[in-house]
Protein: Glycerophosphodiester phosphodiesterase
Amino acid sequence: MLKIAHRGAKAYEPENTLQAFQKALDLNSDGIELDVHLSVDGHIIVMHDETIDKMTNGTGEINTYTLAELKSFLITEKHQIPTLNEVFDLVDKKCFINVELKNADTSKQVVSLIEEYISQKEWDYQHFIISSFDWSALEEVHHLNPKILIGVLTEEDLDTALAFAESIKAKAIHPDYNLLNSENVQKIQEKGFLVFPWTVNSDEDIQKVKGYKVDGIISDNPDKI
Ligand code: G3P
Ligand code: CA
Structure:
């Protein structure tokens, strides 16, 4: 049962910061999950929301700022917003990285960066899995490089997600855990996909989802898994 730290170990450090990812490594997570957007000058920015309002001392949409401008805003008065390269360098192959594309406009840059780390820094395809609720973004990833592992995010119909996953030869289904039971987990696995539900935080829910024999759990508290 893989432990995947949601937005880093979000229960312990500000989400999607280098500190949250370091905490996830300290907790021996098997993987980290993070969210990405593009800056106006084309850098891949790690943050959940489309704006910096919730997390920083600034306001406005990420895609209207340059990287240098984004670096001037602070999270909890001390942390800078990380780029995806910075997270890759911190993790340094110690666990796998689940990159969630929040918009289709990030597909090309993320695929290029993954290819760069594989060709130049001895990373492996197993170190990455790209997920998105925007399935057109996943189709583009598959078209750009079919070797990249893909997780199909869904909070609705599992059968539709399964059919789509088959069409793009995805590696995993990433469902809202409330959709799951023992039978449908088995059905997904029999079709050859891993099941990585999100975001499972309470002890009770973790035990319930473990009972379904999923392959991994995305949690703010990876240590509880
Ligand atoms: O990738 C699973 C989960 O992170 C999806 O929801 O809103 O936390 O990005 P959200
Ligand atoms: Ca996410």
Q: What stands out?
A: DSSP finds eight helices and eleven strands in the chain. The chain has a mean pLDDT of 98. The CA atoms of residues 107 and 141 lie 6 Å apart. Residues 33, 35, 100 surround calcium ion (ligand 2) (CB under 6 Å).
